[in-house]
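seq:
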Amino acid sequence: PLKILSFQELYGWSMDAIVSHIGRRNNCTFCGVFRRQALDRGATLLGADKIVTGHNGDDIAETVLLNVLRGDAPRLQRCTQVTTGQEG
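struct:
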């Protein structure tokens, strides 16, 4: 089933409101974290125990390159993980 949830519904903030509050410099961090949490929360609401997303080589290469250019070693390690969470 398709369930559409907005950041406003989930967090009380829209991305537009966040950007207007914090500026454009670090908004990708908020969006990425919110998006991942939204997927987890949506799965919980639907009773799903797995989430499958499609990423291609360009997506991964872009993420790695951005993290290298930023010098963000911890994020660079995380962005190459294939799965998140635990089996159980």
